[in-house]
From TrEMBL:
Its EC number is 2.3.1.30. Transmembrane segments: none annotated. GO terms for molecular function: serine O-acetyltransferase activity. It is an enzyme of class 2 (transferase). The lineage of its organism: Bacteria, Pseudomonadati, Pseudomonadota, Alphaproteobacteria, Acetobacterales. Keywords: Acyltransferase, Amino-acid biosynthesis, Repeat, Transferase. Belongs to the transferase hexapeptide repeat family. Signal peptide: none annotated. The keyword ATP-binding does not apply. This is Serine acetyltransferase. SUPFAM superfamilies: Trimeric LpxA-like enzymes (SSF51161). The keyword Amino-acid biosynthesis applies.
Length: 222
């Protein structure tokens, strides 16, 4: 029975070590997966409006939105889960761990495959955005708030915006559940600093041109 399998997964993977009753009754990630199973079955039968309605009920009750067309493997553990969104053509393998605020979304409005494929044993930190028809290889780890738009190799760890492997600092190899890493380089900060320097340079050139124009004698008339 899948309910017991999901509850067993929660008890094994959650460091809070909940009781059976807690795992079955008080974990929205468990309920979200069960609602999705029903919605997905209806979707495959062609009852799409009914499937979407069932999915809507599941989202209302759990705060987790899983499109009925998405394919979800066994023993998915959505921890906390509030704000998690899984798109229509997403595929999630077995034994995947997803924290709250994660999006498995698309980058294109065109029909067809437009959401990620997440292979077995992947862990995705809180707030991460995994976008487009990319593949996250088995056993990979995605840091919190990372933005992933390219394939992630099997067993790799990626963090940041855009997502990339962390540095060599041993502290980077710790838990990424909430994306706490030590990074000496901030790519977004570097880009902002470069833009500020460019604006300052342009302002200096504009001021020089204005001075040159002010100092230039007026051309004689007639």
């Amino acid at each position: 029975m899948e309910l017991l399998e999901l509850a067993r997964t929660v008890r094994a993977r959650d460091p809070a070590r909940p009781t059976w009753a807690e795992a079955i009754l008080a974990y929205p990630g468990v309920h979200a997966v069960l609602w999705h199973r029903l919605a997905h079955a209806l979707w495959r039968l062609g009852l799409r409006a009914t499937a979407r309605f069932v999915s809507h009920i599941g989202r209302f009750l759990t705060g987790i939105e899983i499109h009925p067309g998405a394919r979800i493997g066994r023993r998915l553990f959505i921890d906390h889960g509030m704000g998690t969104v899984i798109g229509e053509t997403a595929e999630v393998g077995d034994d995947v761990l997803i924290y709250h605020g994660v999006t498995l979304g698309g980058l294109s409005g065109q029909p067809g495959k437009r959401h990620p494929t997440v292979e077995d044993g992947v862990a995705i930190g809180a707030g991460a955005q995994v976008l487009g028809p990319i593949t996250v290889g088995a056993g990979a780890r995605i840091g919190a708030n990372a933005v992933v738009t390219r394939d992630v190799p099997r067993g790799a760890t990626v963090v940041g915006i855009p997502a990339r492997p962390p540095g060599r600092d041993p502290c980077d190899e710790g838990s990424i559940g909430y994306g706490l890493t030590k990074q000496e380089v901030d790519p977004v900060g570097e880009q902002i600093a470069a833009l500020r320097a460019e604006v300052a340079e342009l302002r200096a050139e504009l001021a020089a041109l204005r001075r040159e124009r002010a100092e230039k004698p007026a051309a004689p008339v007639g």
